[in-house]
Amino acid sequence: MIQRLKSPGLSVVSGILLSLAFPSWLIPSLHPWTGWLAWIGLVPLLVAIENAGPRRAFLLGWLSGISFWASTLYWIGGIREMEYMALPAVSCFALYLGLFTGGWAALLRWKRMGPYWLAAPALWVILEWLRGWLFSGFSWTPLGASQWAFPAMFLSARFLGVSVVSAAVVSVNMAVWSLVRRGGERKIGVYASAVLLLVLLVLSTVAANQVRRDVSGAKPVRVALLQGNFTEAEKWALPLEVLLSRFEALSLAAGKEKPDIILWPESATASELSRDALTQARISRLAARTKSVQMAGAIYLDKDGKFYNAAVALSPKGPFAVYRKQHLVPFGEFIPAWIRTILPFARKLTEGVGDYSPGSDPAPMDLGAAGKAGVGICYEAIFPGIYRNQARQGAEYLLNQTNDAWYLLSAATYQHALGSITRAVECGRYLARCANTGLTLVVTPEGRMVSRLGLFETGVQIGDLKHISGVTAYARWGDLPLLLAAIFLLAVSILAGKRTETGQAGR
C-alpha cells in the first residue's frame, strides 16, 4: 500500500527533475549546469514502475509526462492572447504529450519486453521521433537538447541528430537505476551505458575536428541582427511609420560595421510588403545606404493569392528573393481544418491577415555575393528537417527570424532558442537568430553562443558567419540511420524477452 502511494509521487518528481534540466520556471535562462539533472531524472519513474504491470506503468509514466510538460510549458498560461483558453491549453498539451512517456513506461513493463538496458533507449528514440511527426509534430525540448552546453557529448548530434544524445541520457538513467535498486545485478546495463557514452565521446571528438577543418580559412559573411523590441500588442497597434523608423535607425547604425546582410525579425514590417511599394522602396534605399542585403520579415501576398509568413531579401533595386515559411504554427498561423469543423468559432491567436499558407520550396536563398543562406522562421527552428534539407542543397550558413514577444520573461524564449543551437550542431553551420524582443544570438557549428542580445533590449548584434560547404552525416541522412538502429535493437529486445518467457514456460 505504501509503495502504491509512493509511486505517483516518484513519477511527479521524475517529471519535474527532467523539466529542471531545461530552462524552466525555476531558472528561466540558458544555464549550462542544469543539464546534469537529465542524467538522473528518469530514475524515480523507473523505481515507481519496477513492480508494476503495463497498465499501471502506463498511468505512472503518463503522470510523469504530464508533470514534465506542465512544468515545461507553464508559460502558455501567461500568453495574453490565450485569454480563457490558457489553462485548458496547458492541460491539453500536458495530457497529450504525457502519453509518450506513458507509452514508454508501459512498453518497458510489457511481459515480452527483453533487457531494459537495450529496450529503453531504443523506445525513447522511436517515441521522440513520433512526437516530432504526429499531428504536424512538436519537437520542443527533446531530452538530448538538455546537454547543449557540453560539446564533448552534444557534438555527436552532427552524425545522428539530437536523439542519439537522448538515447545516451536514457541509457545512463537505466544504469543508475540498476545500481541503486539492483545492486550487483544487471551489470551489463552499466557496461552498455559506458560503451554508448564512449561512442558519443569519440563521435564528438571527430565532429570537433571536422568543425575546425571546415572553418579554417572559410570566407566570412558579416551579419547585423536588428532587435527592434516591440511587444506583441505594439507591433500590431502602432503605426507602421513607428516600426519602420526604429528599424531604419538600427539599420543605419549597423551599416557602420559594413555588414553583408542586415537581418530583421519575423514579421517586422507588420504589413503586406508585396503590395506596399512605398515600404519596399524605403527598405531598398536602406540597402543602398548600408551597401548590404536587407532581409525583412513580412506578410507576403503571392501571385497565387495566398498569404505567407515570409523573409524577403531586398537590394537597392528592390525584392529579389523570398523565403516562405513551410512549417506553420497551429492556432498561431492557421486553424486546422478538422478543428474548424468541430469548433467553427475557433480563431487564430495572431492578428493581421487570415490563415497563412505553407511554403513549398525547400531550397536555400541565394543572396548573391553573400552566398546561400538556409532560412527558417520562428517555430521552424525546432524541426530538424527544414535546415537539414537546405544544408544538403548548398546552404553555407543558417538564418532564423523569430518573434518571441509572446513569451515575455518566461523560460519559453530560452527553450525555443535551444532549437537554433541544436540545428547549428546537426547541420555543422553557423546560425544567426534575430528575435524581435530577444534572444538575438549567433551560434557556432559547435553550438557555442558567441554573441547575444538579452530579452527586451533594443539594439544591434554583429556576427561573422563563415561559409561552410561540407554536408554533415545528419544533414545527408537525417533520422533514418538512428531510427532503423532503434527499431532493430527494440526487435532484438522483444525477441530476447519472448525467448526468456518461452524458456520459463518450458520449465
Describe what you observe in this structure.
Helix content is 48%, strand content 14%. It has helices spanning 2-20, 43-49, 54-72, 86-108, 116-131, 151-154, 157-160, 162-182, 187-215, 232-237, 240-255, 277-290, 337-342, 384-392, 412-427, 473-477, 480-506; strands at residues 220-227, 261-263, 293-301, 307-315, 318-324, 365-366, 372-377, 397-402, 431-435, 440-443, 449-453, 459-466. It folds into 2 domains: 2-214 and 477-506, no CATH class; 219-467, Carbon-nitrogen hydrolase (Nitrilase/N-carbamoyl-D-aminoacid amidohydrolase, 4-Layer Sandwich). Strand 6 and strand 7 (372-377) form a beta hairpin. The two termini are 32 Å apart. It has 507 residues and is an alpha/beta fold. Mean pLDDT is 91; it is low at 503-507. It is globular and about 70 Å long. 52% of the residues are buried. It contains 17 helices and 12 strands. A 6-stranded mixed beta sheet has the order 5-4-3-2-1-12.
How are the SSEs ordered, and which strands pair?
Elements: H1 2-20, H2 43-49, H3 54-72, H4 86-108, H5 116-131, H6 151-154, H7 157-160, H8 162-182, H9 187-215, E1 220-227, H10 232-237, H11 240-255, E2 261-263, H12 277-290, E3 293-301, E4 307-315, E5 318-324, H13 337-342, E6 365-366, E7 372-377, H14 384-392, E8 397-402, H15 412-427, E9 431-435, E10 440-443, E11 449-453, E12 459-466, H16 473-477, H17 480-506
Parallel strand pairs: 1-2, 2-3, 7-8, 8-9
Antiparallel strand pairs: 1-12, 3-4, 4-5, 6-7, 9-10, 10-11
